[in-house]
Write a structure and sequence with these properties.
Elements (H helix, E strand, L loop, with lengths): L1 H21 L5 H6 L6 H12 L2 H14 L4 H24 L4 H8 L2 H33 L5 H19 L1 H29 L2 H8 L13 H16 L2 H9 L3 H33 L14 H4 L2 H8 L3 H39 L5 H22 L6 H15 L1 H9 L5 H23 L4 E3 L4 E3 L6 H17 L6 H8 L2
Antiparallel strand pairs: 1-2
Length: 491
């Protein structure tokens, strides 16, 4: 009962702060980009909390349970991506837009804005959806009378309430506290989980040797298949850019990226490591196995919550469960803010009502948050696991948006045609892969080789199609005006 009380109190705190901050929302800047006044240390907290979501807490941890330290390849893509983004953060803040599609239209064409918005909406509703799944599983573990489907509906409703009140202002306000809770909780849980497994020697005797190898049981191609989606997503991650727009200046944006690198590396490594330590305790537990003896993927994705509820001291377990709430809510709210901002800014204000008042635009965005959250709830029925949802969403952004976005800042020769073709090719290829995979096919015969229709490999065809379209489309058309390309490429 103590765990349920802790989680309930934490949720009440989140909602109370959100309602308080809602009184400060006066303008479009306040709701969408927190008034463009966020200092670097608050930006570190909100950037880190945005990235550490249910994909890490459930998908990454479940992968760590099943496959060992090779699961960190998924996290490593983000680490490299953040380092690259460091060199772009100042330029992004200088442009001072609201959304990534703003950038795509400015550099390319209105069609790039529309296609970019489509890719972001599809991806981010998928990401928001698996936050609801994670939250539902959390409620089920805390109070078994609530089944996971009912739980995810409850979480969806609470996330809507939190997000519609103060928008980005409420998210930024709480994320520094959320970040501290997450770090303290997982730092306590890791050594306790190792001790519960009997120590390092017992752990290595219980788990397969592949758990401790660099690329794991599945090998190099699977490892790179995990690495690339997170790398590409991070470099085109719209919520991160939207938070750069919220920074008070270019210097604050750059400092925040450095802090984000430290925070993400620390938390992601601790999450996966704790799950691997927990595997030493639960490796032979039938609750994590299917009837045929193989692992139940959905069950393994709850390993950290089961550990917190059943095998940690009350204080450590309560902190880890509160950290889980922080992870779910921080990520879910952000990933509803971004597509709702895109609809409000990139569709409604840009094409339907350019002269809309700020109050009406904020109302429209609040309505969109509700509608998008309900749509995300429906999306959760399309996938078998959180990890599959994460890889699909990461690839949708990483293949469709990232190549064109990076080219805008790094390649003077890129043209509107190349940018638009790249985004379209990434969207179409990612959707096509998802349709084939969900249809029961296991491989696609391409003549020279057979490509597995497993989400570990989705990035390969999608990124290839996008980059080729970008390069060929740009080289086949006339260069952009010098003054436009210089605005993006010049430091």
């Amino acid at each position: 009962m103590i765990y349920l009380v802790v989680v309930a109190l934490y949720l009440c705190l989140l909602i109370a702060v959100s309602l308080y901050r809602s009184r400060q929302v006066k303008t479009q800047d306040d709701f969408m980009v927190a008034g463009r006044s966020v200092p670097w240390y608050l930006l570190v907290g909100t950037l880190t909390c945005t990235w550490i979501g249910s994909g890490s807490l459930f998908g990454g941890a479940g992968r760590g349970f099943r496959e060992g330290f090779s699961a960190l390849w998924m996290s490593a893509g983000a680490w490299v991506g953040i380092a690259i983004v460091y060199f772009l953060a100042g330029r992004v803040r200088r442009i001072a837009q609201y959304t990534v599609p703003d950038i795509l239209e400015t550099r390319y064409h209105p069609a790039a804005r529309l296609l970019g918005t489509l890719a972001i909406v599809i991806a981010y509703l998928t990401i928001a959806g698996y936050q609801f799944i994670g939250g539902g599983r959390l409620l089920n573990i805390l109070y078994p009378a609530i089944d996971p489907d009912t739980g995810k509906a409850i979480v969806c409703g609470l996330v809507i309430l939190f997000t519609v009140t103060a928008g980005m202002l409420s998210i930024v306000s709480l994320d520094i506290f959320n970040g501290l809770i997450i770090i303290i909780a997982i730092a306590l849980a890791a050594p306790l989980a190792l001790s519960g497994a009997g120590g390092w020697t017992a752990l290595t005797e219980t788990l397969p040797a592949s758990h401790f190898s660099v690329t794991g049981r599945l090998g190099v191609s699977s490892a790179i298949g995990l690495f690339l989606p997170t790398l590409f997503l991070l470099m085109g991650e719209s919520s991160m850019y939207q938070k750069f727009f919220a920074a008070k200046d270019e210097n604050a944006a750059r400092k925040a990226v450095i802090g984000m690198i430290v925070g993400v590396v620390l938390v992601e490594t601790l999450l996966d490591t704790t799950a691997i330590f927990a595997a030493g305790t639960y490796w032979h537990d039938p609750a994590f196995r299917a009837a045929d003896g193989t692992f139940n993927q959905q069950a393994t994705e709850t390993v950290l919550l089961v550990l917190a509820r059943n095998n940690l001291p009350v204080l450590a377990g309560s902190l880890l469960l509160a950290g889980a709430v922080a992870i779910v809510f921080s990520t879910a709210t952000t990933f509803l803010m971004v597509p709702s901002t895109s609809f409000a800014r990139d569709i409604y204000q840009r094409f339907i009502d350019p002269g809309v008042s700020e109050s009406k635009l904020i109302l429209f965005q609040r309505i969109m948050i509700v509608l998008l959250a309900l749509t995300a709830l429906l999306v959760t029925t399309r996938f078998e696991s959180i990890l599959d949802m994460a890889l699909y969403a990461y690839t949708m952004v990483g293949a469709a948006v990232t190549p064109a976005l990076l080219a805008a800042f790094l390649w003077k020769r890129v043209t509107p045609t190349g940018g638009v073709l790249s985004i379209a090719a990434g969207i179409v290829t990612t959707i096509a892969f998802g349709v084939l995979a969900s249809g029961g096919m296991t491989h696609l015969d391409l003549g020279l080789f057979r490509m597995p229709l497993d989400y570990d490999y989705i990035i390969y065809p999608a990124a290839t199609a996008s980059v080729l379209s970008l390069v060929v489309g740009s080289l086949a058309t006339a260069p952009s005006p010098e003054e436009l390309s210089n605005r993006f490429v010049t430091n």
